[in-house]
Amino acid sequence: MLSALTDFAGELREVGIPVSMVEVMDAADALRHTDLTERERVRATLAATMVKNARHQRAFDTAFDVFFGVRQGPALDGGGAPAEPGAPSEQGGSGGASGAELEELVEALLSALGEGDLDGLRRLVRRAVDQLSGFQPGRPVGGRYYQYRVMHRLNVEELRRRLLETALEGGELDPLSERIAAEAVDDQVNLLRREVQDEILRRLVEDRGVEAVARTLRVPLVEDIDLMHATREELDEIAARVAPLARKLATRLAARRRRGRKGRLDVRRTIRRSLAHGGALVDPKWKPKRISKPELVLLCDVSGSMATFARFTMQLTFAIGHQFSNVRSFAFIDGMDEVSRFFGPGTDFHDAMAEMSAHARLVRRDGHSDYGSALTTFADEFMDAVTPRATVIMTGDARNNYRETGIEVLHAIAEKARSLHWLNPEARRYWDTGDSIMSTYWPLCDAVHEVRTLR
Question: According to the model, what pLDDT value does residue 86 have?
Fold first, then answer.
């Protein structure tokens, strides 16, 4: 158990969850008072001693399922001999099963779920994985693929409908009772889904080993999710993290501004004050420094995968907007338009991005990235947004489809603005490959940053 615990702690560190040696010792001590045959109690014990942030829970659960999943071979299925661990049945290699066999399996699953027979359910799940998953030892296929095949063949929605019909038999029920019955059926379906997932995971571990499966199924922390390739669910997690990140950045800006309050030495006041000390200059006086909030101008490429990164940038910027005297946002593909009106405090960014896509003039030609055309439009219509007090932030991958660069306009922006920064969400090793012209724009910028994750 100690070896498994230290390996598990090492996997958590690989994922990015900070786990100290003291916490591992605490976990080992807590396990002495935990029933090790109760898997969920072990999970709760380890989570209580190793997880310090709620956003790390999903990655912890995935690693726990790999390291502390059920390891015994398949149980006897209806009185036969146990199958070899991970070995497919006659139909397993192709994931096939006859219609009669499938219907018999579905009826048995419905009966086990309805009666709450957990042991029987697990035997049937093993049989379902044998017959429907197409599991083959040694194949580099993820568990989600096998789980999809099983659940798709079982037709989960039809299962749920039949379970609900059975639960509602016996006459009319009031709305509350119907809702309770529907939630109970959902719990049954989720139980089936978890058992299928656990069985497939068990076979993967037996076939490939714990470390290999853990690497394959590793769940990145929200701060390490690639902003360009995030799913909708991951984007929601990122959005939830933007507000705390914005508060941290705003605090840093405010602190920097406070530290810079002292201006130049006020010689006249210092000498006058020194007369009270016999002419000794022991109490220097300073001229008050004029504190001004800068202006911010965003130029965001929203073509293709850049739209995700632009959404994040706009959301973060408006969250710390009170630290700036003025924030103006512009989006472009092959045209450029101001989109500040679509965003603001309390904005639902899913709706705002949809509104922006529908109503902003972002496409003026063929809808492919054209930095030259977009920058020219900015120079013609919006150049007044750039002032000597403005910090300009350009976001994009600088992939221009081999078109005009618009370098003259960017040079004019850099000359007129207080500073120009470029945020590129693409990995640095891909800059200047294919149609990327990052090195063309780089010399004009005060700073260029690779920004791929929240971290």
Answer: 42
